[in-house]
C-alpha cells in the first residue's frame, strides 16, 4: 500500500496539494503515481507566472516507460517551480512528497479546493489499482 | 493469461508484472534504470520464456528454411545462429527471428511472443510441399544472461569454460541449449532449459550475482543497441529493405517468399531508410512522434526512449531514403524540437557510439 499522508489533499489524477501559506499551495505527484510511472527521467515544468484553470494540463512527467500529463489541482497562477527537477527528475521517485515537489500555485478561487479528495478518499480510489 | 515457469520467482523478487503479448511478464523489479546499468556494467538475467520456440526437422529442413527465410540458411554452419526475417508474398515482415542450425536436418527457431499464432500458422502452411516436421517447444524456458561478466558468471555456475563459444554460436550440454546471442548489445548467452529446471538455474545465476531484469530494461537496452522491435520498427507493411534490415537479406538468390519484391526494390533503390535520432534539448523521444524537415512532415519515430547509458533521448526513425540531412525536427506536444541524425546504433559493449 502506497503512503498517503493524512495532511494533504489529492486529485483523482494523482497530484497532491499542501497549503504552505494563505492562498499558496505546493503541488506534486503521489507516491503511488511515481511508483506506477517507474524511473522518472524528464519533467516539463509549468511556466512561472502562467495561469491555469482547475484540471488544466500544466506540465508533463516522463518516465522510462511513459509520459504522464500533470494537471493543475486548483485554478491559479504559478508562483514557484522546482528547478532542481530539470537536472534531477528522480527526486520525484526518491521523495515524492518533499524534495520532489513540482510547483507552487496561488489560488484564484478557494472554492476549487472543495473538489479535491481527502487522504481517505484518495486511498480508496487507488485501492483497486494496487 | 500465460505464465512462465518463473512466474512465482518474479513475484518473490518483487517484480511489477504486466501483460505482454498474452503473457504475465516482469516489467521491472524496482528500478528499470538500475537493471539497465547492471547489464551494461556487470550482468543481468532476463526471463524470456514467453518467446516462441519452433523446431523444424526432416530431410527437407534446409531447403524449407531457404524458401521460408530471407536470410541465407545455406551459409549457416552447424551450431551457428542466423538472424533473419520471415516475409509475406509482398515482402512485408511477418516476423524477425533467430534460427539455430543443429544439423542439416534439424533447426530451432526462436521468434516473438505476440506473433506466435500467426507464425505457426504461416510456417505450417508453407511446409506443405516439404518433408519436414514443425513442432512448437513449450517444454522449454529461455533465460537470457547478458552483460560483460556473463561468461565468467556462467563458467562458475555450470563449471564449464565458455570462452571458446563464439558470438552467434550454440552448444548443447546435457539438457541445456546455450547460444551466445542476445538483445542488449552486450556479450551474453541465451539458455534454453527444460521448464522443470528453470527455477533451479535462475536461482543459481542470481546467487552468483546476476541481477534479475525486466522487459523495461530489455527495451531500453535493445534500443540503445539499435536492435529492431517487431510491431514498432517493422511489420507486415514494411519490407526489410525499407527499415534498416537489408543487411539480413541474402543477395545471391531471391528464391524465398517475398524475394521477387525485394529484388525489385533493391534494383530500384529503397524508398525509406532507418536512422538514429538524438534529441538536442531536454525531453523524451517516443514511438509515433512525427518528424519534420523544413516544416514538411517526412517521417515517424518507430522506437524512442530515454537512453540511460548516454543520458539522452534517442530514437529509431524511418525517413525517405533520398533525404540527406544532419538535423530534423520532432514534434512533441505540438512543439517542434531539433534532433541530430546519427547512425542507428547508439551503444555497444558499454560504450556510447554517438558522435559529438
TrEMBL record, chain A:
Protein name: Glycine cleavage system H protein
Domain of life the protein comes from: Bacteria
Any single GO CC term annotated in Swiss-Prot or TrEMBL for this entry: glycine cleavage complex
Residues annotated as domain Lipoyl-binding: 24-106
Cofactor(s) needed: (R)-lipoate
SUPFAM superfamilies reported for this sequence: Single hybrid motif
Modified residues (N6-lipoyllysine): 65
Described function: The glycine cleavage system catalyzes the degradation of glycine. The H protein shuttles the methylamine group of glycine from the P protein to the T protein.
Record has Transmembrane as a keyword: no
Naturally occurring in which organism (per UniProt): Marinicella pacifica
Cofactor note: Binds 1 lipoyl cofactor covalently.
Annotated gene: gcvH
From TrEMBL, chain B:
GO molecular function: aminomethyltransferase activity; transaminase activity
Transferase in keyword set: yes
Domain GCVT N-terminal: 6-252
Reactions the enzyme catalyzes: N(6)-[(R)-S(8)-aminomethyldihydrolipoyl]-L-lysyl-[protein] + (6S)-5,6,7,8-tetrahydrofolate = N(6)-[(R)-dihydrolipoyl]-L-lysyl-[protein] + (6R)-5,10-methylene-5,6,7,8-tetrahydrofolate + NH4(+)
Superkingdom field: Bacteria
InterPro entries assigned to the protein according to its UniProt record, in alphabetical order: GcvT, GcvT/YgfZ/DmdA, GcvT/YgfZ_C, GcvT_bac, GcvT_C, GCVT_N, TrmE/GcvT-like
Pfam families: GCV_T (PF01571), GCV_T_C (PF08669)
BP GO terms, sorted: glycine decarboxylation via glycine cleavage system
Residue ranges annotated for the Aminomethyltransferase C-terminal domain, each copy included: 273-347
EC identifiers of the protein: 2.1.2.10
Chain positions recorded as substrate binding sites: 190
Gene3D superfamilies for this protein: Aminomethyltransferase beta-barrel domains, Aminomethyltransferase fragment, Probable tRNA modification gtpase trme, domain 1
GO cellular component, one term: cytosol
Similarity annotation: Belongs to the GcvT family.
Oligomeric form and interacting partners: The glycine cleavage system is composed of four proteins: P, T, L and H.
Function: The glycine cleavage system catalyzes the degradation of glycine.
Name of protein: Aminomethyltransferase
Gene: gcvT
